[in-house]
Amino acid sequence: MRITDTSDLWWKTGVIYCVDVETFFDSDGDGIGDLAGLAQRVDYLAELGVTCLWLMPFYPTPGRDDGYDITDFYGVDHRLGHHGDLVELIRTARDRGMRVIADLVVNHTSDRHPWFKSARSSKDSPYRDFYVWRSEPPPDTSREVVFPDQEQSIWTLDEKTGEWYLHHFYRHQPDLNVANPQVRDEIAKAIGFWLEVGLSGFRVDAVPYFLSMLGVDSKELAEFANPHEYLRALTKFMGRRCGDAVLLGEVNLPYKEQLEYFGGAEGGELTMMFDFILMQNTYLAMARQDARPLARALKDRPQTTPDCQWATFVRNHDELTLDKLSDSERQEVFDAFGADPSMQVYGRGLKRRVPPMMDGDPRRIRLMYSLLFTLPGTPVLYYGEEIGMGENLEAEGRMAVRTPMQWTADASAGFSTAPPHRLVARVTGGGYGPEHVNVAGQRRDQGSLLRFITLLTQRYRECPELGWGHYEVLSHRTPSVLAHRCTWDDASMLAVHNLSSEAVTVSLVLGDPPLGPSGETDGGWRGVVLVDLLPSGDYPEDGIPVADDGAVTVPLAGYGYAWLRIQHPAQRRLI
Ligand code: GLC
């Protein structure tokens, strides 16, 4: 493989870590996490193997959607620090080989943004057309709202001017009108600004809503054409300003539509997209102890262009959405992982984190994270996953998983020197509270989840086939097992995951023999063995032999998994 093909595609072998500055580490004892605190914990993240930090919104905000309601696209929420602190964080991260990206929330602003304040003051406001208005009473849109517990319509009447404004999310988040060239310029300027400050790209919030031209009249639409042309232009603009910056998009749509947001077969739009379909099918497969939903999702997943990449995740900061499963499939996942209505939200998702959903079973938790790091794509961790934090079900909705990071066993979790009642969010209690789950304890424990996840990030980084390679889902007769093979150049790996509690033995045929280090193919399967890349102790040290036809048999414990390098006899890759 040539340098020109791969070496700059850092996002294809990255480990992304999503952090909410407010709840990560408080450096000044006011009970609120801050940028200076996060900078102090960059070495911890570097040791974990993180290569890219994703900062959730840190902009000025009234805080009615946890920072996703912004009043100034150029500012820093003063509770978290100021621009100087942000630059120090970015510099420190860069020094440890880590990039920083941040949420770009441009579908809407807060209703307290000066643009909206002006827009709603008069129909003649210069900012009126920054938002989307209608003068006729809206039809019933109750099925289109994103937060059905709070909103009944995506249009709200603004008394003063007697017109309705569009908001896909909360009514205090009016949608920006991206058909307006001035709005497009403002978005480009904000992107340009943060790139100059040192960000390496953005997690783009709510992309399909951001690009939707709903409410825009057809004359304007003709002029501004297709939203994908706009996205392509925005991507090009970013590329001119910063060649290796990425746009990681939140696009929770069926695969076929997602592909369009990559720019279809030509690419050129989003660099990365979260794989919501694979995530949801992972939970369905785990609930059924049957790997077939996962295998099906991987087979259905469209090929991207070489520069693009899927981002894999098993938890994020929102509800664990199951909206793309059928009603009965969703019910199966609810029954398995959150049967109590207090664990569910919006009728489509769960408020829980992975370990409590897996009943704290370490085998199953590790299985989940082994999947995360081997499912083709770039893994994204949500803060606290590496130590197995739980949720606070008493917190409202999605806030259940936005509790303070647990550094030590003390009552404020080592997150802050302020007492627990003065913290920005309540610390998780019970069996997942800081006295049981914290970084300090796990750093001292060789058998901890933290050590395990660190091992996974290291192995993942050493296995280029996982990020850069192509994959095949292998057929066999053991329904509980997902077997997939990833290959890039002369590196090839078989990953096997047994979703059942019963031990199994899976027999399969591997396909083409691996290449030798100089690309040689003549030896066939002669001398090829499967080498265990995780030191499980379950397999022979000199490897599992492969038969002449590529057939192999792998035993797996209940909830067992293995990363097996398909090792050519002349290969010298690190194992
Ligand atoms: C995205 C964010 C979510 C937020 C919403 C509105 O879906 O992930 O947290 O509430 O956008 O900005």
Automatic annotation (TrEMBL):
SUPFAM superfamilies: (Trans)glycosidases, Glycosyl hydrolase domain
Organism: Sinomonas flava
Domain (Glycosyl hydrolase family 13 catalytic): residue spans on this chain: 18-422
Annotated Pfam families: Alpha-amylase (PF00128)
Identification of the protein by name: Alpha-amylase family protein
